[in-house]
Amino acid sequence: IVEKDRFQTLGDLRKQWTESGVETSRATVYRRVQEMGYRCRIPQVKPLLNQKQRQKRLTWATEKQHWTVAQWSKREMPKCLKSSVKYPQSVMVWGAMSAAVNAASYQEILEHFMLPSAEKLYGDEDFIFQHDLAPAHSAKTTGKWFTDHGITVLNWPANSPDLNPIENLWDIVKRKLRDARPNTLDELKAAIEASWASITPQQCHRLIASMPRRIEAVISAKGFPT
């Protein structure tokens, strides 16, 4: 049974054994599986990538293979997110992050939040902006907005959260929020601000410095998820 389907749980195995007339406990099933040389593992969830997407990831990683950490540090990485408390209340977050928005509202976010942030971070220096391939991001009007503002956008392969270090940064924020356990909207906002403020520049730098390793991992995996 295990060899035919590695995703069977101990409960699934016990149910099948019971249906075949073998009465046993879950603990006994676990021991027998261990005795047979198998170990229980939680499967990792990875984005589904077709061959074309894997090739694009591999090409992208090969092109960026020799980028330095200094080059990666000139990249603005936003993400749209919506965090909710126990009841149906929510709050939108921007912190070089940015829920599902249309092209027009996305451009308003860029105008009113990203531009001031970039000006504060980089002044008159050039920088490269990165976002994923969400419809609002890849819309023609959004592309025109970036062209009109003279901002270079980094080409980005589909289904590639493993290449985006801000995913790890947001995970840090979420872990801190779990510890805070906010119950009201005001508590949620305060917890988000406190979590974000507690992230150190060193943590950000370590994530940016991981980009060469991520690139090499994608090349080693021939475009598959890492």
UniProtKB/TrEMBL annotation:
It holds the Pfam family HTH_Tnp_Tc3_2. Residues 2-64 form the Transposase Tc1-like domain. The lineage of its organism: Eukaryota, Metazoa, Chordata, Craniata, Vertebrata. InterPro entries: RNaseH_sf (IPR036397), Tc1-like_DDE_dom (IPR038717), Transposase_5 (IPR052338), Transposase_Tc1-like (IPR002492). Residues 95-189 form the Tc1-like transposase DDE domain. It comes from the Eukaryota. This is Transposase.
